[in-house]
């Protein structure tokens, strides 16, 4: 009976050990499952962290891209404003250049007109001067011819001539003062007798007709004549 009791107790002990072993196995299994779950949780957490980091990186890149895009837009706007400013400045410079060109063209046109008017005026003045000069020359020549004729008449009045002088002549060079006073007389080519008598006739007259016009006198202050006795 005692052996049976021991066997019963031994059987109960084995059952208790088996139950404890089962419990330990269950605990171990449970721990294993918990460890697997924890590992999976860590894995999910790492994945979530990785995804969060990737998302943060993506957001950072998006923000950076947005910032760069904003900077590019701002730069583009600045460049557009600068281009518009330069275009406006170029247009203004072109407008001023065109105005300056027109102004210079107008000035040049006015200068040409002024030069043409001046040239025309100078031409008219020169033509008038030439007309007056020609008229004056004609007047002086006419006066000179008149006084030459008067001098010839004066010489003829004071000239003692005879028939032997017929057809003969003499060249005289007479120097006259503004008053008509005969300063000198010289003879040139001609008959000697005619020249002597003609010279005496001039000296006898003492004064000869002289124009009061200074220009005419200038032409006749030294006058050359060819005289012929009038018989």
Report on this structure.
With 231 residues, the protein is mainly α. The protein has a domain at 143-227: Fusion Protein Consisting Of Minor Coat Protein, Glycine Rich Linker, Tola, And A His Tag, Chain: A, Domain 2 (2-Layer Sandwich). The chain has helices spanning 2-157, 192-205, 214-220, and strands at 170-176, 182-190, 222-227. It has a 3-stranded antiparallel beta sheet. It is rod-shaped and about 230 Å long. The chain starts with a helix and ends with a strand.
Low-confidence stretches: none
Helix content, binned percent: over 70%
Which fold name fills CATH's third level, the topology of the domain at 143-227?
Fusion Protein Consisting Of Minor Coat Protein, Glycine Rich Linker, Tola, And A His Tag, Chain: A, Domain 2
Order of strands in the sheet with most strands = 2-1-3
Estimate the strand proportion: 5-15%
**Count the strands?**
3
Helix and strand content put the structural class at mainly alpha
Round the Cα radius of gyration to an integer and report it.
72 Å
CATH level 1 class label of the domain at 143-227:
Alpha Beta
End-to-end span in angstroms? 227 Å
Give the integer mean of the pLDDT values. 89
Q: What is the tally of helical segments?
A: 3
What is the H-and-E element order? HEEHHE
In a few lines, what is going on in this structure?
With 231 residues, this protein is mostly helical. 77% of the residues lie in helices and 10% in strands.
List its traits.
231 residues, single chain, 3 helices, Fusion Protein Consisting Of Minor Coat Protein, Glycine Rich Linker, Tola, And A His Tag, Chain: A, Domain 2, 77% helix
